[in-house]
Amino acid sequence: MRSRSTEQEDYLIRLIRQVGELARRLRERLNGSAEESATVRFDATQAVERLLGPDAALLTRVDADTAVRLIASPSRMDLWLELLEIEAEACRNAELYSEADAVISRLNGLRAALVKASV
Asked: Is the confidence at residue 32, as pLDDT, over 90?
């Protein structure tokens, strides 16, 4: 893996802070209404795309072990997991239970892969 330049590291730190703040605001908006939950879900998926950048389409489709390996940033990984939790809760609030189950399955797979990678 290539080492990142200071500029890249600074950008990543700013990005993580911004998306982290967005995740906090999204969590506050989870109030149980189906309409607001749909908006929160959309905003959470947009935040994931922003967090993962140009590789978002790939990272959201590859198996969990590969995704964890490719991200290689604990902070980004933690934030991705948080956004998936928000998305799952928004799905449940909107009574979209099969979609919530799919998000939770991905979330659990990523968590398991993260544990496996840290061993």
From this structure: no
